[in-house]
Write a structure and sequence with these properties.
Largest sheet: 4 strands, mixed
Radius of gyration: 31 Å
Number of strands: 4
Shape: elongated
Helix content: 55-70%
Order of helices and strands: HHEHEHEEHHHHHHHHHHH
């Protein structure tokens, strides 16, 4: 089937694109899948942050029972543990049997007994490393005190001399205290961008196939040009994804701040803004490819066959990107891959969040991605225009690229 003449079409290009985008936006925002999907992700976020807050709280706190002569080190144990970043609560236990029962049922993390120089620790399975270090430090200090007294030396003076001997460390590049949080935010943003681009890019292709198989596209193209229909669909679905991403990012930041999982609010907000920019670039980069690929087939069951090559690039980029960000965020491979336009929307936001992307690399990746967006928009539009009205068997890519 040939493309109808555009001679009698009076709708202005901007108006045509806007109407199609508005139709897609209104339709998708009201669907149950959008509402339920967003709600489910928010519930998952809430559960994750609550779990993180609980685990972090429990990881930094221990309840220790003291019995016999060990009760005398309560204050010293709290002081040394605090220096090691551990919050310890001590309780006096009247008998070892009672303490053993409380350790078995989880009311106590450990039970201390014996004298200070020969402490005995009872735990259910294993002893926390920080608590183990604190107890070793206390025992060693007591033995050292006793040895110094036997030698007739002033124990406090000797200990002060020992403690004053420290190693001085000079860093060429001071360590970023917010490095871990930056990395976590970067990985989360990579995941969100991957999910959004994949989900809404696939919806673009499915929408094209649906309109083509139901012949609705023939009615629409009696008024609109193919590129106007494709661009309107891409913009409409892109805005839908952008709205969902804003909801998830805003709610995620609020939950993370409320539960204490995130304290670097400035970095988090900056990451979200960069993420939104890269979502727009990444979506337009892939959505036009998805639209062109979807126009090659006329049945939904054939859609996956034409989308697989595109989604595989995204999947590989996501898997490789997350692994590189976690294992070697400042490595050469991570840097090079983040500058490749097909991978930049997934990798570059993570590097920016981690504070590892200099300005010139960010600017270069944006320029390269914009150039690729322009190229793929032209190619996707050409494929779409030449294939969207051809029904029946799958259209070959080389035929779709030829002028109609």
């Amino acid at each position: 089937m040939t493309t109808p003449s555009y001679r009698d079409r009076t709708v202005k290009p901007f108006t045509a694109v806007r109407l199609v985008a508005k139709r897609e936006l209104n339709t998708r925002l009201r669907t149950r899948s959008f509402l339920i999907g967003t709600a489910v992700i928010l519930v998952v976020f809430a559960g994750y942050f609550l779990l993180q807050a609980t685990l972090l709280g429990d990881a930094g706190r221990s309840k220790i029972g003291l019995t016999g002569q060990a009760t005398g080190i309560s204050d010293q144990l709290k002081s040394v543990s605090q220096q090691l970043g551990k919050d310890v609560e001590t309780v006096t236990i009247t008998s070892p049997e009672e303490g053993r029962a409380q350790v078995e049922n989880g009311d106590l993390d450990a039970l201390l007994s014996g004298n200070v120089s020969d402490l005995q620790v009872l735990v259910k399975s294993d002893l926390d490393k920080q608590l183990h270090a604190a107890l070793n430090s206390i025992a060693q200090q007591q033995v050292l005190n006793a040895t110094l007294l036997e030698a007739g030396l002033d124990a406090p003076q000797v200990l002060n001399t020992i403690n004053s001997a420290t190693v001085k460390v000079t860093s060429i590049t001071p360590e970023d205290p917010e490095k871990d949080q930056r990395l976590i935010i970067g990985v989360v943003m990579v995941f969100l961008l991957y999910m959004s681009i994949t989900t809404y890019g696939t919806l673009v292709a499915q929408g094209v196939v649906e309109e083509k198989s139901s012949r609705v596209v023939e009615i629409l193209l009696s008024t609109l040009r193919p590129w106007q229909l494709m661009l309107g669909k891409v913009i409409g679905l892109g805005l839908t994804g952008l709205i969902q991403l804003l909801i998830l990012a805003g709610a995620g930041l609020a939950m993370a701040t409320a539960t204490g999982s995130l304290t670097v609010s400035g970095i988090a907000v900056s990451t979200v803004l960069w993420g939104l920019l890269w979502y727009i670039l990444g979506f337009f980069l892939y959505a036009t490819i998805f639209a062109g690929a979807g126009s090659l087939v006329s049945r939904q069951e054939d859609t996956q066959s034409v989308l697989t090559p595109v989604t595989m690039v995204l999947v590989i980029g996501f898997i490789v990107g997350v692994n590189l960000l976690l294992q070697s965020p400042d490595g050469q491979a991570t840097t090079v891959l983040s500058l490749i336009p097909l991978l930049s929307p997934v990798l570059m936001p993570g590097r920016i969040a981690a504070g590892l992307a200099p300005g010139w690399q960010i600017a270069l990746s944006i320029v390269l991605t914009l150039a690729t967006v322009a190229l793929f928009t032209w190619l996707g539009g050409r494929i779409y225009q030449n294939a969207v009205l051809r029904t029946g068997s799958r259209v070959k890519l080389k035929d779709a690229l030829r002028s109609s």
